[in-house]
Specification:
Layout: H1 10-16, E1 25-30, E2 33-39, H2 45-55, E3 58-64, E4 67-73, H3 77-90, E5 101-105, E6 111-116, E7 127-135, E8 141-146, E9 157-158, E10 161-164, H4 171-183, E11 191-205, E12 213-225, E13 239-245, H5 247-255, H6 261-270
Parallel strand pairs: 1-4, 7-12
Antiparallel strand pairs: 1-2, 3-4, 5-6, 7-8, 7-10, 8-9, 8-13, 11-12
Length: 273
Amino acid sequence: MPAGAGTQWVQPLRQASQQPPQAPRWPLWCNGQRIGSVAEAVFDAAQATVWARQQGFVLEAATVQGAQAWQLQADDPTAALNAMAQLLRTQGRCGPWRNEQLDVHGQDGALVATVERGAVRVLGVATQAVHLLGSAPDGRMWVQQRALNKPTHPGKWDTLMGGMVSAGDSLQTALARETQEEAGLDLAPLQQLRRGGQVDFACPSEEGGDGTGYMLESIQWFHAVVPQGVQPQNMDGEVAQFQCITPQQLQAWLLQDCFTPEASLILADHLGW
């Protein structure tokens, strides 16, 4: 389907992926690096300062570069951020707790710390993800249906694979691990594997509740041909089923909003929409 008639949904979805926070947020600084942002309602300044001191680090409201901000000073920023994540968890403000660490970078790209995945949205920490589009040799597309118990977009259709880049991962390492876990496929037998492009999200997130979550994510997507006779098989329990669908069915499902927002924008990018 060429861009134009029938693809009017793409632009609104792209606009929805780039939206300001629902609630005012204070920048979050750590040892001189801006690493995220926190909604005003999340921490009480006086209580947070006392609590942090008890944990062995400093967390205080301060003016940084002319703006009201949270300033974290810690000898071990990873320990401090994960203590904050645990506090948010007890308050019911975290997303699903995964016992998975993600890298935390400063505004200059330097690695500052790592933090539990469940806290990144409420802390406004930027994340990276990888997705893989898998085509069959005859031009059909492999897609997965997300498990019904997934915390986000349960039952929606998705790319062949999508996953987070964990702490210490390269894009290639994350791509290989997530493809094996979600689709039971090694990268080596896949044909014509290439990087396809990038889709960015900067928009409110339901995680954190009360408009306190914010998603900052860069998705690097790749494309490969799955050889004839190779069947994806889920290994981590997070996929309900795989289907190999025709281009016509793929386009119809996109128009019917069957895919997650991330998958929809990646597929639109792939199709040149």
